[in-house]
């Protein structure tokens, strides 16, 4: 049953930048729930709208493509500010817009991965807008997180006898103070992380299958919008 009272995608000026917001609900009486995606730069509205479909019977789903990402990506956005305070202020304005658009005083906020940093800071700084905060893949202690993540993929490569993976992982080396030497090195580790089941629960597949392919297949995005997500 797809009898939605609201099912729209709209561009809204947020903090000096045009950003896209997706809203879907069966009843305006339902509380609003804002999903703040990870990355930064990895939109997940297509996954939220599909995997959280059970929430349509109790919530209004609000998905937001952060500045420089997905439907909010433009050539102009390449020159915009991408510091954490800007994202938190963006989130505040998105919440205010959602409240105005849906006739609410507060919204529930779900932060995933990188979005959990933005979500926590939003709830701390602007509790008047947040009914409750829910963390998914909640970020905490980044340096220790990266160390454990690297050790996990290397141990899995050794357990599986994956010599190519062992060679590549030892080649990039463990992160120092939570950072890899380059973005390329980080992508190597992240690819093996998803292949070995450290990305999505019970899924052992690389970045292409877990992230890029679903984006290419979803009706939520056009192929021309992929540069804003890859």
From TrEMBL:
Catalytic activity, as annotated: Release of N-terminal proline from a peptide
Domain spans labelled AB hydrolase-1: 31-138
Superkingdom assignment: Bacteria
Gene Ontology MF, one: aminopeptidase activity
Subcellular localization: Cytoplasm
Entry GO CC: cytoplasm
Enzyme Commission number(s) from the entry: 3.4.11.5
GO terms, biological process: proteolysis
Gene3D superfamilies: alpha/beta hydrolase
Similarity-based family: Belongs to the peptidase S33 family.
Entry protein name: prolyl aminopeptidase
Organism of derivation: Candidatus Scatomorpha pullistercoris
């Amino acid at each position: 049953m797809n009898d939605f009272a609201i099912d729209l995608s709209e561009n809204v000026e947020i903090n000096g930048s045009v950003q896209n917001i997706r809203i879907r609900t069966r009843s305006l009486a339902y509380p609003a729930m804002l999903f703040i995606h990870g990355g930064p730069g990895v939109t997940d509205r297509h996954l939220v709208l599909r995997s959280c479909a059970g929430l349509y019977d109790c919530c209004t789903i609000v998905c937001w493509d952060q500045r420089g990402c997905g439907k909010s990506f433009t050539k102009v956005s390449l020159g915009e500010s991408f510091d954490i305070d800007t994202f938190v202020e963006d989130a505040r304005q998105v919440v205010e817009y959602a409240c105005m658009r849906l006739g609410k005083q507060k919204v529930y906020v779900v932060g995933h991965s990188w979005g959990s940093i933005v979500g926590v800071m939003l709830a701390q700084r602007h509790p008047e807008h947040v009914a409750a905060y829910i963390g998914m893949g909640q970020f905490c202690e980044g340096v220790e997180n990266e160390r454990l993540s690297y050790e996990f993929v290397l141990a899995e490569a050794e357990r599986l006898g994956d010599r190519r993976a062992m060679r590549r992982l030892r080649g990039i080396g463990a992160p120092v103070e939570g950072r890899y030497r380059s973005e390329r090195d980080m992508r190597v580790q992240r690819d093996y992380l998803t292949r070995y089941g450290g990305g999505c629960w019970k899924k052992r597949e690389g970045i292409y299958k877990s992230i890029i392919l679903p984006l290419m297949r979803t009706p939520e995005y056009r192929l021309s919008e992929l540069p804003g997500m890859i």
